[in-house]
Amino acid sequence: GTPLLEVTDLRKHFPVHSGLLRRQVAAVKAVDGVSFSVNRGETLGLVGESGCGKTTTGRMIMRLLDPSSGSIRFEGQELTDLSQRRMRPLRRDIQMIFQDPYSSLNPRKTVGSIVGAPFHLQGIETPNGVKKAVQELLELVGLNPEHYNRYPHEFSGGQRQRIGIARTLALKPKLIVADEPVSALDVSIQAQVVNLLEDLQDELGLTYVVIAHDLSVVRHISDRVAVMYLGKVVEVADQADLYTRPMHPYTNALLSAVPVPDPNVRRDRERIRLKGDVPSPLNPPPGCPFHPRCWKAQDICAQITPPLEEKRTSQQVACHFPEEAGAAPDLIRKEGS
Ligand code: SF4
Description:
Elements: E1 5-18, E2 23-38, E3 43-47, H1 54-61, E4 69-74, E5 77-78, H2 84-93, E6 94-97, H3 111-116, H4 127-140, H5 157-169, E7 175-179, H6 187-204, E8 207-212, H7 215-218, E9 224-229, E10 232-238, H8 239-244, H9 249-256, E11 309-312, E12 315-317, H10 329-336
Pfam family, one: ABC_tran
Domain ABC transporter: 5-255
Organism: Actinocorallia aurantiaca
C-alpha cells in the first residue's frame, strides 16, 4: 500500500544575505535532496551528527518550516502546498516529541492542564471528562493517574518525558516525529522511555520517525535507519543490515563509535576516528560530501556526487565504493558462519 509518509527530494536552503542591500550571497544547504518513506506501524531512525539536517527534516515534516523544494506526502496527500488552514486537521495526525522534557512543559501548569489542553479539540470539554481522559493517558504512559494535580518540577526527567508523550498522544496521532527523545535523560532512564515508545507503538499502531545523533539510541526501536551527512541521506537500510553490514564508510565510522559492546554489532575493527570536522553546509565540498574525511576516497569522489542507489535488497547507499558491494549473498553468509 501507500507509505504513511513519503519524503521525496526534500530541500531546505537558508539564504545568507550580506551588505547594505541585503543581497543573497549564498545559501546554507541544511537539507539537500532527502528522500525516504515510512510505512504504517514502522519506525524509521534518522541519524547523523549535529548539523546534518535531521532536525530541519523533522521540522519540515511537521510543517513548522517550509521546504525550499521537494515533496512530503502523508497518506498520499501532498503537504507542501497545503495552506495553514487546510493543514490544521492534519496537524493532529502528525505530532512531535521534543528533546528537552524540562523546557517543553509549562512549569506553572499542572500535569492535568498540560495533558488536558488538547482535549477541547476533540469535543471532550467537561472538567470530569477531561480529568478522566487525562488520567487514562497518564496510566498509559506509566505515571500515577492520581498525580494529575502536580506540577512538572515534582517529576523526574524521565517522568517529564512521559508527560510530554502523554500530551502528544492526547490527539491520537498517526505519526510521531521524536526529536532526540531520550538524549537529555540519564542513560539508565533512556531504555525505559524507548521501551515505552515501543509498547505504545504496539498498542496504538503508531508510526515513528526517531531522530538521534548516534546509532545506539535508535538501534532497538528502528525497523529501518537512514543515516544523514551534510544535508543528504548517505545510507538507508533495514535495521539488521545497517548494524551488521553497513556499506557506507560514514555509517561504518558511526557504528564503530557505538559504545555498548554487542555481539551482533560488527566489532572486527578498531574504532574509526574521522579526520577533521564536518564541513560547513554553507560551503559543502563538491562531489561526495564525505570525501574530505573519507579514507576510501578516490579522484572521482571529489568530482561526482554519488546518487543514493540500491546496492543490496532494501539497502540504499550513496557511495562510489561501497563496502562489500561485490560480495555474493552466499559469501556473506559464509563469512558470518
Ligand atoms: Fe568515500 Fe568516495 Fe564513497 Fe564518498 S563516494 S563515501 S568519498 S568512497
